[in-house]
C-alpha cells in the first residue's frame, strides 16, 4: 500500500490533535480534520459510562445535531453492547472495529441505531478506534463514511494505526491536566497552577520553564532532575529516552508515535513515574504560547491509590510483578518494560503469567480493566491543591 497521507498533512493533523490536550474545546475542529483525512463524512469522540449507559463526553463533526442528540438519548446501550462485546474478545485494544467487517448484514439491517441515526445521514460504514477502556468506561473515536465514499478500506485502518498513539497520548495528557483548558498566551503562568509536573524544553532538553510541581520534584530528588539546566531522569536510560522523544518533537512529531506512549523515568528502587512528551513546534494553539518551546514534558507518578498498587495489595503481587503491571498500565509493551528493568523478556513474561494466575484473568486487556476498576474516579485534592 502506498503513502496513506502526505507527511505535511499528517504533521498538520497530529498538531491539531495535540492542541486538544491543552484546549479540549478544539476537539470539534480537530475531528473535522480527522474526518477529512480519512475521507469520512462524520467523526465523533465519545467517553461512555458503561454502568449507566450514557455518554460522559460526546463531541462530533459532521453529525446532524438532531441525530447526534437522538444517538445520545436512545442508542448508547446498543452501541456500548456491541463495542464492549467485541473488545472483550480482543488480545489488544489496538484493533479497529469496523461495522461492515464485524457486524453481520442481518444485524445491520435490523439495528435501530442504524435505522434511526445512520441511514438518514447516508452513513454506510463506521470505524471505531479505542483510546482507553476500563471496567467502568471507554473512550473511542468513530469515523463514518457516506454511501458515495463506500466502505472502510485498508487505507483507513492503516491511517488509524498511525494516529492512534497520538490520540492516546493526547487523552493521557488531558487526564494528567484534569482536562483543563490552557488558554491565552502565557502558558507558563497556567502551568504553575497544575498538580502534575510540567517542564518546557528546547530541542536539546534545556529547561525553559518548570512549573511548581516539577520544581519540587527536582529539588526533592524526584523522578526528574535538573542537570546543568537540562532535563534528566532518574536513570541514564530514561534520560536518553527523554532526550530522544524531545528531539523527535523538535524534528518530526509524526514519528513520536514510534515512541512508547509513556516513558518510565525510574528504576525498580523508586515508585514508578512516567512522562508524556507533547510537541510544541506546530499546531495553532501551542505555537502561540509563551515561552517558546519545542516540547512540554508532563510527569505523573503513581502512589498508593493507584490501580496497580491496589491490585498488588489485593492479590499479593511481588514488587517485580507490580512494576511490570505499572508499566503495562502506563502503555508500555512487555518487551519495553523488560528492557527498562534490565530483565529478559522471558522473565517479564513469567512475571505476567504469575499476575494472570493470581488475578484470575488471561488477557492483558482484562488485566488493565481489573486494574482500572480500582482507580479512584476523580483525583483527590488536598487543601491548597490547584
Reading side by side through the largest sheet, how are the strands ordered?
Answer: 2-1-5-4-3
Distance between the termini: 49 Å
Approximate shape: globular
Share of residues in strands: 15-25%
Total DSSP E strands: 12
Supply the number of helical segments: 16
CATH class bucket of the largest domain: Alpha Beta
CATH topology of the largest domain: Beta-Lactamase
What's the domain count? Answer: 3
Helix content: 40-55%
Uncertain residue ranges: 178-185, 375-386
User: How would you name the CATH homologous superfamily of the largest domain?
Assistant: GAF domain
Largest sheet: 5 strands, antiparallel
CATH architecture of the largest domain: 2-Layer Sandwich
Radius of gyration: 21 Å
| Helix-strand category | alpha+beta
- Helix and strand run: HHEEHHEHHHEEHHEEHEEHEEEHHHHH
pLDDT average, as an integer?
Answer: 81
Summarize the structure.
The protein has 386 residues and is of the alpha+beta class.
Characterization of the model:
There is one protein chain. This protein is α+β, with helices and mostly antiparallel strands. It folds into 3 domains: 7-176, GAF domain (Beta-Lactamase, 2-Layer Sandwich), CATH 3.30.450.40; 187-301, 2-Layer Sandwich (Beta-Lactamase); 307-373, Winged helix-like DNA-binding domain superfamily/Winged helix DNA-binding domain (Arc Repressor Mutant, subunit A, Orthogonal Bundle). 44% of the residues lie in helices and 19% in strands. The chain is built from 16 helices and 12 strands. A 5-stranded antiparallel beta sheet has the order 2-1-5-4-3, with helices on both faces. Helix 12 (307-315) packs across helix 16 and helix 13 packs across helix 15. The longest helix has 23 residues, at 154-176. The protein is globular and about 60 Å long. The N and C termini lie far apart (49 Å). InterPro entries: Sig_transdc_resp-reg_C-effctor, Tscrpt_reg_LuxR_C, WH-like_DNA-bd_sf.
Amino acid at each position: 500500500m502506498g503513502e496513506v497521507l502526505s507527511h505535511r498533512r499528517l504533521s498538520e493533523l497530529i498538531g491539531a490533535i495535540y492542541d486538544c490536550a491543552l484546549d479540549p474545546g478544539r476537539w470539534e475542529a480537530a475531528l473535522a480534520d480527522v474526518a477529512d483525512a480519512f475521507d469520512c463524512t462524520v467523526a465523533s469522540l465519545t467517553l461512555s459510562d458503561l454502568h449507566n449507559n450514557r455518554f460522559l463526553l460526546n463531541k462530533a463533526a459532521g453529525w446532524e445535531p438532531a441525530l447526534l442528540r437522538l444517538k445520545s438519548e436512545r442508542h448508547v446501550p446498543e452501541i456500548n453492547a456491541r463495542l464492549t462485546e467485541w473488545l472483550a474478545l480482543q488480545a489488544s485494544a489496538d484493533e479497529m472495529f469496523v461495522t461492515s467487517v464485524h457486524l453481520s448484514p442481518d444485524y445491520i439491517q435490523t439495528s435501530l441505531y442504524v435505522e434511526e441515526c445512520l441511514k438518514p445521514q447516508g452513513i454506510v460504514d463506521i470505524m471505531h478506534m479505542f483510546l482507553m477502556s476500563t471496567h467502568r468506561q471507554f473512550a473511542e473515536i468513530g469515523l463514518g463514511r457516506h454511501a458515495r465514499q463506500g466502505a472502510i478500506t485498508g487505507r483507513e485502518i492503516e491511517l488509524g494505526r498511525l494516529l492512534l498513539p497520538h490520540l492516546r497520548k493526547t487523552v493521557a495528557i488531558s487526564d494528567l491536566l484534569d482536562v483543563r483548558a490552557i488558554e491565552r498566551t502565557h502558558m507558563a503562568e497556567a502551568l504553575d497552577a497544575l498538580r502534575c509536573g510540567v517542564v518546557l524544553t528546547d530541542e536539546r532538553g534545556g529547561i525553559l520553564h518548570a512549573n511548581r510541581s516539577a520544581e519540587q520534584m527536582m529539588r526533592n530528588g524526584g523522578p526528574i532532575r535538573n542537570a546543568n539546566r537540562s532535563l534528566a531522569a532518574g536513570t541514564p536510560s530514561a534520560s536518553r529516552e527523554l532526550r530522544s522523544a524531545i528531539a523527535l518533537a523538535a524534528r518530526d512529531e509524526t514519528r513520536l508515535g514510534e515512541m512508547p506512549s509513556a516513558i518510565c523515568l525510574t528504576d525498580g528502587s523508586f515508585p514508578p513515574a512516567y512522562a508524556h512528551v507533547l510537541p510544541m513546534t506546530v499546531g495553532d494553539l501551542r505555537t502561540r504560547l509563551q515561552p517558546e518551546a519545542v516540547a512540554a514534558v508532563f510527569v505523573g507518578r503513581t502512589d498508593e491509590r493507584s490501580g496497580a498498587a491496589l491490585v498488588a495489595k489485593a492479590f499479593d503481587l511481588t514488587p517485580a510483578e507490580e512494576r511490570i503491571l505499572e508499566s503495562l498500565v502506563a502503555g508500555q509493551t512487555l518487551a519495553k518494560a523488560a528492557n527498562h528493568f534490565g530483565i529478559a523478556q522471558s522473565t517479564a513474561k513469567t512475571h505476567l503469567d504469575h499476575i494472570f494466575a493470581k488475578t484470575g484473568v488471561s488477557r492483558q486487556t482484562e488485566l488493565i480493566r481489573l486494574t482500572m476498576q480500582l482507580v479512584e474516579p476523580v483525583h483527590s485534592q488536598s487543601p491548597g491543591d490547584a
